Amino acid sequence: ALLVRLKPKWLRHLNSCKILEQDVGLITTQEDAFARGAETLKGGYLPLKSSDAFVVAYRKWLDRVGHG
User: Fold this and answer.
1) Can you list the alpha helix ranges (DSSP code H) found in 1-68?
2) Contact by Cβ (8 Å): 38, 31
């Protein structure tokens, strides 16, 4: 706990995007598939029961207003 407090905040933020960086390959592959028209965005989205209510509500809003 002492080391965490001694570590500057800016240094902690350097590693905050590691999960997203690891998923970049998957995300770009999916984006390419959608761009080719292999599948619609609405058809490719599968909300999991573990998804929180905000994610599901945002997705419904995006389907309603985002035309896609």
Assistant:
1) 2-6, 9-14, 18-35, 53-65
2) no
